[in-house]
Amino acid sequence: MLGLLNLPDVPHVVFKHPPLAMALCQIQFSNVLDIADSTYVAPFHRAIRKEYPITVPVEQVAVQFSVGPAAPDIRQEARTRQWRFADPMDTWSVVLAQDFVALETRAYEDFEDFLTRLRRILQALVEHIQPALTTRIGLRYINEIRVDGRAWSAALRPELLGPLAVDAFAETAYQAVQELRLVFPPSEGVTVRHGLFPGGTTVQPRPGIETPTVPFYLLDFDAYQEAQPFQSLGIDPDELCTHVARYNRVVRRLFRWSLTEEYTEALGVRPNDRRSPPDTIVEEANQQAPHVIALEWIERATRLPLERVARLLGITRPTLYSWQQGAQIRSSNQQRLLAVLDVLKRAAARHPTPELLVAWLDTPRGADGHTPAQLLESGDMDRARLLAVSTLLPELLRAPAWTHEPVAEAFQGVTEHFAEAQAPDNDAELAALWDDGDDEDEPAQEIVFGE
Prior knowledge:
alpha+beta; 17 helices; 20% strand
């Protein structure tokens, strides 16, 4: 997913005037029914009470509608209890339900701070709530862009605005909303909700902050991963945080791609920010580590699950996550990574789509019946490379077009007749068959049978 649309990577810059209205991360897990009991939840709250001392129980009511020939039937389902823990200013909060925990804030400043808070919450969750399975990980950023009377095209790319990039539409448009869902098989995706709203806000304002009344453009990014049936995404806090850090990079790329250079410069950079100023953003993006670039190419070219990519490289999934975040890599591992990359690039020249490339990886080839994927997993790069350059091109595996054409009429009436061969009746006939008659000048030799 990091190779999303081939968008360039961008460094982590803290803006002085960000348009972010809310950031939240939700971790869904298998049901823990005891969460409805305050005595069961109390140890969890004690672990996070220093940052989130305010406790508010929230009742959720499920309502089911049944539509039929008669009047609509509305049934109220069972109530479920959630717990909301907040800081004194109500700018940071944690929501704990029977099947998820969420961290949300309307005072977001730095992803490092957000991730540190999330890790502490997950550590408390694992220690005191002890869910069995993680079923979904999601990171969401809700931005509301207001341009103070300027054209929307001054802040947002025309590819995103669509008709609103045309002045005649933008001047008269009241509302326009669109949802774009990007899916990366088997289990990852990004949902982009964006559009023009006449006023107000999509999130509850912070205490003491008035609701804006001017129009705004919504940029709502939700990057996520869902577990396959009967599987788990892991419950280790560090591993979950590595997922979230990767989704942050995806959203950051999409956010920066959506904005014009003019609007990006207007956001400014925090004076005490230790990261790069705007004029070095492109330079730093081009200095991405080689192993990170290689991983992004493999992910984009194959669309394989990260577990399979890790097996191809002979490493564990947490190690792969750390590499994606730019962690250092040993020279031996980097050599293997680049060797796998070389094999896949050679194969991709003959199998240019992810579907064809994965089919090549998983098809047994050679006398021993090993697949290229098995050769890569075992470290047999030479044989895998040989298969990459020797496998027939897909177009050569198809039957030629003439085999599908009808038989010409001149040949349709011809019928071949086959007669069963008969054994010779006597020795003379057998002798005649033996003598082909090619050498007429040579005297015939007498052949005697039955001596």
